[in-house]
Write a structure and sequence with these properties.
UDP N-Acetylglucosamine Acyltransferase, domain 1; nine-stranded mixed β-sheet; six-stranded parallel β-sheet; 0% helix; 36% strand
């Protein structure tokens, strides 16, 4: 392993796991075989990364998050404390359904708020923002702000994470002044 990687002595990294340069793994984490963590990721206390999970670069995972097989997080994803992922829609203790794992994709720059639940088989779009405690049961568009149980669309967010304000047909971030265009039900930067 690279010397720029930090792994707290209380954590376990199984053989064949890959950890990118600059990544920090804090207390009581477990990274299983064939998991792949990109560069400059941060795993808070008590994070579990299952077999074959892929994390992009600069992913930040706060305390008490388990990321199960079938889940992929692209670059710059933020998982708040105690985010929950699933990988089977109909789990039973006595029935093995490992062949039924569903794929879940969290796209570049998305934020998952504290205690949110991401039901398997969904894609959360680029720079989307899932509010704290939300239960995501269907795909979330790029730049969408969702909240509630089940999660529903309540607005739009900028790449900087601030809610975008709409004035007539114009969508502008009040913090960084980035402008956006709404085409049908898809928001995108105007540049």
């Amino acid at each position: 392993m690279d010397q720029n990687i930090f792994i707290h002595p209380s954590s376990y990294v199984d053989d064949c796991a890959f950890i990118g340069n600059g990544t920090k793994v804090w207390h009581y984490c477990h990274i299983m075989s064939n998991a792949s963590l990109g560069e400059f990721c941060t795993l808070g206390q008590n994070v579990f990364i299952a077999n074959n999970v892929v994390l992009g670069h600069r992913v930040k995972i706060q305390n008490n998050v388990s990321i199960y097989e079938g889940v992929s997080l692209e670059d710059d994803v933020f998982c708040g404390p105690s985010v929950v992922f699933t990988n089977v829609k109909t789990p039973r203790s006595r029935i093995s359904r490992q062949d039924k794992y569903q794929k879940t994709l969290i796209r570049t720059g998305a934020t998952l708020g504290a205690n949110s639940t991401i039901v398997c088989g969904v894609t959360i779009g680029k720079f989307a923002f899932v509010g704290a405690g939300a239960v995501v049961t269907k795909d979330v568009p790029d730049y969408a702000l969702v909240a509630g149980t089940p999660a529903h669309h309540i607005g739009w967010v900028c790449t900087c994470g601030v809610r975008i304000q709409q004035k007539n047909d114009t969508f502008t971030c009040i913090e960084c002044r980035e402008d956006y265009i709404l085409t049908g039900s898809k928001l995108s930067p105007s540049k």
